[in-house]
Design a protein that fits this description.
By secondary structure, this protein is of the alpha/beta class. The chain has 2 domains: about 5-50 and about 85-195, Rossmann fold, CATH 3.40.50.1100; about 55-85 and about 205-385, Rossmann fold (3-Layer(aba) Sandwich), CATH 3.40.50.1100. About 45% of the residues lie in helices and about 15% in strands. The chain is built from 15 helices and 14 strands. The chain has helices at about 20-35, 35-50, 60-65, 85-100, 115-125, 135-140, 140-150, 165-180, 195-220, 235-240, 310-320, 330-345, 350-360, 385-390, 395-405; strands at about 5, 10, 55-60, 70-75, 105-110, 130-135, 155-160, 185, 225-230, 250-255, 275-280, 280-285, 320-330, 370-375. The strands form 4 sheets. Strands 3-4-14-9-10-13 form a 6-stranded mixed sheet, sandwiched between helices. A 4-stranded parallel sheet has the order 7-6-5-8, with helices on both faces. Strand 5, helix 5 (about 115-125) and strand 6 form a beta-alpha-beta unit. About 55% of the residues are buried. The structure holds pyridoxal-5'-phosphate. Pyridoxal-5'-phosphate binds near residues 189, 230, 348 and 376.
Length: about 425
């Protein structure tokens, strides 16, 4: 990376003049914190006492036997507080907010998971909190809205445009411009203008640091391949950073939805219809049409359903530092079911993308090969989607009734 936050030509900070000073301040405080060994220690301590870190590494004995190939290990980010790796990022940013002396945080959320994580952090640190959410998403994600409000956040439904995530992002930026002195914008993934991609990666690197030591302890060598799902790219960057200088092959797995050529997917790094552009303050691969209008994306996992992708991963694609694949909704449901049945683990549908790709490759690897899969979150939230996919008439009736009560059309994430 260079000083202006470019990663092999991707990234940067395309900002309105009024926000430049705020980003400079954030960058300076982040750099100072990163050079202060006590800061990382404080961060590790808070994650240990508040969010179950270090999260365990689980040897998937039954899946390994089932496929008859590589030895399969699973990094258990599902055991974090609020159920996913998102806690690593929000708690880290919370410490920076304190260091900057700010008292209020804002965030935008689509499926609600990042909103809940941010509201949780705000409650813990005693910050005021506002969450912007498209009005459509507010109706789809009633349980998450309920928890954000109970946690003390002000949830603002955004009625502009198509009333979904991208409209909420615009509204959050508008708020930030008017309240820069007191307020920090907690970005949810390794995207956005510099220094966010680098900063979010820094906090998520705790996953890779731990996983590296844990695999070494278990096997006395590093894994051959590491698999992670890619929405914005933060859990992938987190686990990859433990192995970035090694011979370990890094595999990022995107959502192929109903197929890469169906027009209903969320793949920016594998699909032919994604292209490089500048939007939301940074340069990367976006799902956009020829006029630069963002396209509708689709994934069975709401947390992967995003138009942009981490500029750092876009750089990895260009240099070949990581390999990118995409798996379909059907393959994901099958991989989740198998993991539940064989190991008693319930991966989030986002995470199940990484499992599905690993399962395709494991049988062809030798029995002493080692692979590591990042289970970015837990799948309890996906009950409606998974049950629906199984088409069990008894459950389906109950689920549709419940889904109707919640007014949601898909499960929460992101
Ligand atoms: C939000 C989320 C993701 C996608 O975000 P990344 O920034 O790509 O990691 C993946 N898995 C789970 C469980 C999530 O909640």
């Amino acid at each position: 990376m260079d000083d202006r936050g470019y990663h092999n030509g991707f990234g940067g900070a395309f900002l309105p003049e009024i926000l430049v000073a705020t980003f400079d301040q954030l960058d300076a405080v982040f750099r100072q914190a990163r050079n202060d060994p006590e800061f990382w220690q404080t961060y590790e301590n808070i994650m240990a006492s508040y969010s179950c870190r270090p999260t365990p590494l689980t040897f998937a004995e039954n899946l390994t036997r089932h496929f008859g190939g590589a030895r399969i290990y699973i990094k258990r980010e599902d055991l974090n507080h609020t159920g996913a790796h998102k806690a690593n990022n929000v708690m880290g940013q919370g410490l920076l907010v304190r260091r900057m002396g700010k008292t209020r945080v804002i965030a935008e959320t689509g499926a609600g998971q990042h909103g809940v994580a941010t509201a949780t952090m705000a409650a813990r640190f005693g910050f005021r909190c506002t969450i912007y959410m498209g009005e459509v998403d507010v109706h789809r994600q009633r349980p998450n809205v309920f928890w954000m409000q109970r946690l003390g956040a002000d949830v603002v439904p955004v009625r502009d445009g198509t009333r979904i995530l991208k409209d909420a992002i615009n509204e959050a930026f508008r708020d930030w411009v008017s309240n820069m002195d007191t307020t920090h914008y907690v970005l949810g993934t390794a995207c956005g203008p510099h220094p966010f991609p680098e900063m979010v990666t820094y906090f998520q690197s705790i996953i890779g640091k731990e996983a590296r030591q844990q695999v070494m302890r278990a096997e006395n060598r590093l894994p051959d391949r590491v698999y992670a799902c890619v929405g914005g790219g933060s859990n992938a960057m987190g686990i990859f950073s433990g192995f970035a200088d090694e011979a370990t092959e890094l595999v990022g797995v995107e959502a192929a939805g109903r197929g890469l050529d169906s027009g209903q997917h969320a793949s920016r790094l594998c699909a032919a219809d994604a292209s490089v552009g500048v939007a939301q303050g940074y340069k990367t691969f976006f799902l956009q049409d020829q006029d630069g209008q963002m396209k509708e994306t689709h994934s069975i996992a709401a947390g992967l359903d995003y138009v942009g992708v981490s500029p750092i991963l876009a750089g990895f694609k260009e240099t070949g530092k990581a390999r990118f694949e995409a798996v379909t909704d059907d393959e994901v449901v099958e991989a989740a079911s198998l993991t539940i049945r064989k190991e008693g683990l319930i991966p989030a549908l986002e995470s199940a993308h990484a499992f599905a790709q690993a399962f395709k490759e494991a049988p062809a690897l030798s029995r002493d090969a080692i692979i590591l899969i990042n289970q970015s979150g837990r799948g309890d939230k996906d009950i409606f989607t998974i049950a629906d996919a199984f088409d069990d008439p008894g459950w389906k009736e109950f689920i549709i009734e419940k889904a109707g009560q919640y007014g949601r059309e898909r499960s929460p994430a992101s």
